[in-house]
Structures are given as structure tokens and as C-alpha cells.
Amino acid sequence: MDEAPHAPLTKRDRDLLVAAACGALVGVMIALSYAAVPLYDWFCRTTGFGGTTRVSTSAPAQTLERTITVRFDSNVGPGLPWRFVPETTAVQAKLGEVVTVVYHVTNLAARETTGIAAYNVAPLNLGSYFQKINCFCFTDQTLKAGEKQDLTVVFYVDPALAKDPEQDDLTSITLSYTFYPAREPQRGVVETKPSSGRS
After folding, report:
1. Rounded to an integer, what distance in angstroms lies between the CA atom of residue 88 and that of residue 74?
2. What ranges do the domains of the chain cover?
């Protein structure tokens, strides 16, 4: 027994189908855009991609005799009137040795300003070996007019670096920070009517 042929879709049905498909595609793209940032951040922290360092909660179990020169670079992005310099430009660190370095920051403006620091490590493929125990990055730093602060980073270079044959000739690593203006939350404005002078 032959089945009855399906009625062709009307123009209205086709338009509704296309609209639904476009709506679903837009929804998927929005969901992916929200997921992209945390997924990329997780990927970078896991692999050290792009010079992203790792975060550690304690010192390593061993210290090796091999030393690495760790250089410190500091930058201030446009729009932030700060002076930002490391206390020292480089240190010699043994693999696994916990090192503390201080950065000096000064607000040169005549008003309170807020900055936030981002960082990376060069060479970029070494981020996974650079372990930070304490850092001022990705935290708003607010300075009053003319205020000075000391900011501390505590880190070590993972002893596992010694087992990577591709890094046998490595002699130095650069830790670079850049402070950017932080977006300041809008403060509510309370309007007051001028006094008329009448009681």
C-alpha cells in the first residue's frame, strides 16, 4: 500500500524553520563565547601555554644545584599614571628554591587610582615550570594620590625542568608584569536640591 505523499512545506513553514535554526545557532554561539574564557584560562594554566604560570600552595620537596637567572620586567599600560619597578632586575635561583621579589609601585596622579596586573613568562613554553606561591596579579590595587606600595611575588622554578631535555641549554627566564587601569565601578550619584534659604 503506497503512503500518501507529504504535503510540501509552505513558505511560512520554511521561514519558521529557518528562524528556529538561526535562533538555535545564535544560542550555541553565545554559550560558546561565555565558555571560551574559562576554558582558555583552564587550558593555559594546565599547559603553561602562552607563558601562563602555575599556582602552587607550597614549596617543592627538593632543591637542585642547577641555577636559572630569573629576570623581572615591569610595564604600565596607557591611562594608568603609575611608576612600577622591581626591587631587583634579576636573581639567580636554584631549581626548587623559593624566591621572594618585591615590586615598588607609586601613584603619580593627584587622585586615587586603581590598577590590575597581568603577567606572562618568557620563553612562552616555560609557564608550566614557573610556580607562583603568592602574587599580586589579577587583584585590584588601589592607591591614593601619591601613595607608594610594595607588592610581593613568591615563586620557584619547578625542579621538573631538569628532566626536560629540550631545556638543557636554558639559562634564563623572564617574568613580566603589566599594570592596566582597572574598571572602576560606577558610584551612585545622590542629587541634592540647592537650599532656598527658607525654613
Report:
1. 11
2. 12-47, 54-181
